[in-house]
Write a structure and sequence with these properties.
This protein is mainly β. The protein is about 5% helix and about 55% strand. The chain is built from 1 helix and 13 strands, in the order αβββββββββββββ.
């Protein structure tokens, strides 16, 4: 629902509008008409990017990253790229940023044997020249907006500074200058 429809339904429709016509010395009671239906704006297609030179093959199955909060600084959505995997490619969104910090970080990495490796830390920060590839990212902000982006449904634009609640993504690959996790521990989930 677009703003004009919302405004009409929530503000205009509940009240009776009065218009005073001073030229004819009369009072006309006018009920405003509903606005014309909104036309959805088409999201332009995402830029298709070439694989960076020297990009190593990535895992065929993405790890599921979750946390309670995340903050990104210097964020930009670069486009969609087909990353190499053994025997093919995997499509991913590519984001660049100066830093990403996740509170209550958990990364569940599926293994071919059927078990999963769990990496946990009270916080995890990647910083420097960060390039992050994901096949799905859920963007939930404090205002209540909750949107999921994929290579088939990419974000139109992203603010350069972004804070998320309950971050969740399928992490395909990340490259950075520095990774910090004060109490990183690994366990196996059977």
């Amino acid at each position: 629902q677009c703003f004009s429809e919302y405004y009409y339904e929530q503000v205009i429709n509940p009240i009776k509008s009065f218009q005073v016509n001073v030229f004819n010395s009369s009072i006309d009671i006018i009920r405003p008409s509903a606005p014309a239906p909104c036309q959805p704006t088409a999201t332009p297609p995402a830029r298709i990017l070439a694989v960076e030179p020297g990009q190593p093959p990535v895992a065929g199955a993405a790890g599921r990253l979750t946390g309670t909060r995340a903050s990104m600084s210097g964020l930009s959505f670069d486009g969609v790229v087909d990353l190499p995997i053994v025997g093919g490619t995997v499509r991913a969104l590519r984001f660049s940023m100066r830093s990403w910090t996740t509170s209550d970080f958990v990364l569940r990495i599926p293994e071919s044997s059927g078990v999963a490796t769990l990496l946990r830390s009270t916080a995890l920060t990647v910083e420097g020249h960060v390039t992050l590839y994901t096949s799905r990212i859920r963007v939930k902000v404090l205002s209540g907006t909750d949107t999921t982006y994929t290579p088939d449904s990419p974000p139109p634009q992203m603010p350069s500074e972004l804070s998320l609640i309950d971050p969740e993504m399928l992490l395909v690959f990340v490259d950075c200058d520095r990774l910090t996790a004060p109490d990183l521990r690994a366990t196996v989930e059977r």
